[in-house]
Design goal:
- This protein has 147 residues and is mostly helical.
- It contains five helices and no strands.
- The longest helix has 26 residues.
Length: 147
């Protein structure tokens, strides 16, 4: 019996290239909906924390799977970034939460740059990671100004 979760490598690469861009959309959708939905700022901040925790898990995975290529302390740094994203939800509503998430996404991007240079990620991953992080950080900066 064939496992339904196995996918050809090309399909995985295609999905892993496209899905992050779709993941950035809610940051901008929140901006579009804010005039008619007062909960948009909190929803976007919460979504950012979820995505930051997810991306933090990428570093955790690399530290376990490829410890020779992962920077020392990556397990700890992955936990710290996830906790910092959660802390962004605990501060009083406003600029500080968005600023904290910007910092988290910038640190996560730096981690992935280092992992890319160490050969831990496939060559095609860095441009996607860099571009999507730019979109997310850009949206969070807009939120920070508007908040």
């Amino acid at each position: 019996m064939r496992c339904m979760f196995r996918t050809p490598a090309a399909s995985v690469r295609q999905a892993a290239t496209l899905l992050p861009y779709f993941g950035a959309l809610p940051f901008y959708l929140g901006l579009a909906l804010w005039p008619v939905w007062s909960g948009a700022p909190e929803a976007v901040l919460a979504y950012g924390a979820v995505i930051a925790a997810f991306v933090s898990g990428l570093g955790w995975t690399q530290a376990m799977v490829q410890p020779a290529r992962a920077p020392a302390g990556l397990l700890i740094l992955s936990n710290v970034t996830a906790l910092a994203a959660w802390a962004a939800l605990l501060v009083p509503p406003g600029k500080l939460g968005y600023a904290l998430e910007v910092l988290v996404f910038a640190v996560l991007l730096g981690i992935d740059w280092r992992l890319t240079r160490a050969g831990a990620w496939p060559d095609w991953f860095w441009p996607v990671r860099r571009n999507v992080s730019g979109l997310v950080i850009g949206a969070l900066l807009v939120w920070m100004v508007l908040a």
